[in-house]
Amino acid sequence: MAEQQVQRQVAFVFDLNKCLGCQTCTISCKTLWTDQPGMEYMWWNIVNTMPGRGTPRDRDQMGGGFDAGGNARPGVLPSAADFGEAWEFNYDEVFYGGKGQSAYLHPRRPGTNGVAEAPDWGPNWDEDQGAGEYPNSYYFYLPTICMHCANPACLAACPRQAIFKREEDGIVLIDEERCDGYRFCMEACPYKRIYFNQPRSISQKCVACFARLEQGVAPACVRQCPGRVRHFGYLDDPESDVHKLVEVWKVALRLHPEWGTKPNVYYVPPLSPYRFDENGDIDEANSRIPMEYLRSLFGLEVDGVLATLKEEMAKARRGERSELMDILIAYRWQDMFKPFVQDPGELERPPVKA
Amino acid sequence: MLVKRVDAKKEELLDPAGAAWRKSRGSKVVLSPTPLDIQPTEYVRVSWRGRPYGKVPSMRVSALHNGRDIFFRLVWEDDSADSKIADTNQFVDAVAVLFPIAADAPLIGMGIKGKPVNAWFWRADWEQPKNVAAEGMGTTQRRDDPALAAKARHTRGQWDVVISRSLNGKRAPKGTATLQAGTISKIAFAIWQGANQERAGIKAFSLDWQELQIEA
Ligand code: SF4
Ligand code: SF4
């Protein structure tokens, strides 16, 4: 499967050194796009604690994508339980059952009607567990969405050509009219960012807020992020942060580049404090997040990127100017997603249909 | 395959347990897996290589008409009735009856451009079968079609499905095979096993068109 050629490509850069794990991005997406029946369990955007099993459960073992020779790799079709079903709560009992003082709200697995079967998995279930032993324990947050890949495994897998990559901005969309719910795309996407809508029998995923882009508005997850983590823009626009971070400073890396889909979501990898050695002294040769682990996620370039980040931080500390630090600090919020700076609140709205 | 003319009401003929079917033993149709190398994407080929599918070896087909509607009764072994999509990794049982629209439309690959085929596609989770037009794999267009009806039951490890449509192309949308009493045309069959995640081109099908003779 050859790379899909497009006129322009938008890209996201997520700075993992700033992500708070607050899931504001997740909720902004949920309320905007996935609040309809059949979408209860969908989280087109999800933030996972790393190291962790991911969403869906054990995603990294689910295959898909391409091998080193560019051949399709078989993948696994996750169950709803792997993603984490939408829980139900015993509202009736607590609020209307006369037990307001004795009963408390607890989650149940869906469809277990009355039987209080406690869930044993959910999206980001292993939140804040991370890895390592005190005082060298560590974790960081990893937001994922559909990567709007340059070589989308989902698009290549679909026997109905129901998935397409837009010429004008390179975002990858599923044509819901053509989709027959075969779910080969779900299997083939190595990032497992496609969900199946059971009542509608179609596959659905992040749409990069295309309707907002067309009005010059940045995607909801980008605009709503309180951590100023998310940069967005055209990769070929020399004025855009994403261009500067990916092409000029080269500090933004793809997640699992070996999966071969060439994502257009990039990550500034996380720095971490130095380890303590056996004597309780600071070991300046090793950081708490093991480099092997970061290399397994972002490839071998991660060493160089962390070195650049450290150099530029040192410069800034000495009071010298660092363009890179200025970009990553994001002094001016709107600079993060130029030219998609239109305030959605100021757009003229079409009249609401009765 | 002969479609006998009987004097019976639609309701009776649509019911697989209906009296009209008792006399017809039907004929055995041998099925085989659709070849892997004609699957339309590399992913489908790679992910099913070495994985068994299309394992229903045969089905029994009987056919009747009453001058107004035509009925196909399709019976095949399937231990598990998968009649609801209850999970994201689960699929449902299905069966299709296929007809060429162009007389020389190839069956393998579901027709080609300019030589379409027509299928009546029943899926265990649907109230009504859908009308499918195709000019090659992956080009299928499914449409609701009020002229199509089906009734199904699953007993003793067997699906027993009757699919019917009006004769003479009455109320038929474009791209529908018109079947007429007193004519000879062609027919083929396909089966999907939901329990084995079969869908799209991953199915069992009758290798070639069979002759379909509709009694006058
Ligand atoms: S992340 Fe997955 S769904 Fe999104 S474009 Fe890439 S392969 Fe397709
Ligand atoms: S909204 Fe921003 S800071 Fe919060 S979890 Fe999402 S990316 Fe991280």
Description:
Chain A has 354 residues and is of the alpha+beta class. Chain A has a single domain (10-83, 124-337), classed as Alpha-Beta Plaits, CATH 3.30.70.20. Chain A contains eleven helices and 14 strands. In chain A, the strands form six sheets. Chain A has a four-stranded mixed β-sheet. In chain A, strands 2-5 form a two-stranded antiparallel ribbon. Chain B has 216 residues and is mostly beta strands. Chain B has one domain: Immunoglobulin-like. Chain B is 6% helix and 39% strand. Chain B has two helices and 13 strands; from the N terminus they run βαβαβββββββββββ. Chain B has helices spanning 10-14, 42-48, and strands spanning 2-5, 27-33, 58-65, 69-77, 94-100, 117-123, 130-134, 141-144, 148-155, 158-166, 184-192, 204-206, 210-214. Chain B has a six-stranded mixed β-barrel. The longest helix of chain B has 7 residues, at 42-48. Chain B is globular and about 50 Å long. The mean pLDDT of chain B is 93. At the A-B interface, helix 2, helix 4 and helix 5 of A face helix 2 of B. The structure holds iron/sulfur cluster (2 copies).
The name CATH uses for the topology of chain A is Alpha-Beta Plaits
Mean of pLDDT of chain A: 95
Number of helices, where a helix is a run of at least 4 consecutive DSSP H or I residues of chain B: 2
- According to CATH, what is the class of chain B? Mainly Beta
Taken as a percent bin, the fraction of beta residues of chain B is 35-45%
CATH fold-level name of chain B: Immunoglobulin-like
Rounded to an integer in angstroms, the radius of gyration calculated over CA atoms of chain B is 16 Å
Q: Let me know the average pLDDT of chain B.
A: 93
Protein topology:
The complex is a heterodimer of chains A (354) and B (216).
Chain A: E1 10-15, H1 24-33, E2 46-50, H2 80-83, E3 88-89, H3 91-96, E4 107-108, E5 140-144, H4 153-157, E6 163-165, E7 172-174, H5 184-188, E8 194-197, E9 202-205, H6 210-213, H7 220-224, E10 230-234, H8 241-248, E11 253-254, E12 265-268, E13 274-276, E14 282-287, H9 291-298, H10 302-317, H11 323-329
Parallel strand pairs in A: 1-12
Antiparallel strand pairs in A: 1-10, 2-5, 3-4, 6-7, 8-9, 11-12, 13-14
Chain B: E1 2-5, H1 10-14, E2 27-33, H2 42-48, E3 58-65, E4 69-77, E5 94-100, E6 117-123, E7 130-134, E8 141-144, E9 148-155, E10 158-166, E11 184-192, E12 204-206, E13 210-214
Parallel strand pairs in B: 1-3, 1-13
Antiparallel strand pairs in B: 2-3, 2-12, 3-4, 4-10, 5-6, 5-11, 6-7, 7-8, 9-10, 11-12, 11-13
The complex binds iron/sulfur cluster (2 copies).
One iron/sulfur cluster (SF4) is lined by residues 146-149, 152-154, 172, 189, 191, 193-194, 205, 261 of chain A.
